[in-house]
Amino acid sequence: MGYRKGYYRKDGTYVQGHFANNRSKSFSKKNNGCMLLILFFIAFTSIISCSESSESTNSTTNSVTGSNSNSNCPTKTCKDFATQAQAQAAYDSNKKCYKNLDGDGNGKACESLK
Predict the structure, then answer these.
(1) pLDDT tier at 68, thresholds 50, 70, 90
(2) How many angstroms separate the first and last alpha carbons of the chain?
(3) Which of 29-38, 44-53, 59-68, 69-78 has the lowest mean pLDDT?
(4) Of 32, 45, 52, 67, whose CB is crowded by the most CB atoms within 10 A?
(5) What is the spatial distance between Cα 80 and Cα 84, in angstroms, rounded to a whole number?
(6) Does the keyword Transmembrane apply (predicted)?
(7) CA–CA separation, 36 vs 93, rounded Å?
(8) 2-58 pLDDT, tens per residue?
(9) Do the beta carbons of residue 113 and residue 81 sit within 8 Å?
(10) pLDDT computed for residue 27 by the predictor
């Protein structure tokens, strides 16, 4: 809104100044289009950020538990083997899958077994 100055009409009468809406309706329609684009951008970025944070949460959980949900690694513990040699053979066959058999990380699986 703005203040419109007073003016004289062609017939000689004076129109006193007053406040008037200087914006046209087409101007506000253009703003609605921009607003829709801004809202779409905000919604899109929030969806992306939520999906990235859930992926990082899953990878953090998997690294803490020592398992990977996408792999075919069996879940074996030292109790599943009768001797240390059997556990060592399994560990040597795939150290990535059976890393939970080597608790202290020295390369020897299930040291408590004889």
Answers:
(1) very low
(2) 90
(3) 59-68
(4) 67
(5) 11
(6) yes
(7) 57
(8) 667 888 889 989 888 877 766 665 555 556 677 788 888 888 888 877 665 555 545
(9) yes
(10) 54
**Residue 87: Cβ-neighbour burial (10 angstroms; 0-12, 13-18, 19+):** buried
The total of other beta-carbon atoms located within 10 Å of residue 84's CB is 18
Q: Would you call 108 exposed, middle or buried from its count of C-beta atoms within 10 A (0-12, 13-18, 19+)? A: middle
In sequence order, which residues have a C-beta less than 8 Å from that of residue 79 and are 6 or more positions away? none
Give the 3-state secondary structure of residue 84: helix
Burial of 98 (0-12, 13-18, 19+ CB in 10 A): buried
DSSP letter (8 states) at residue 55: H
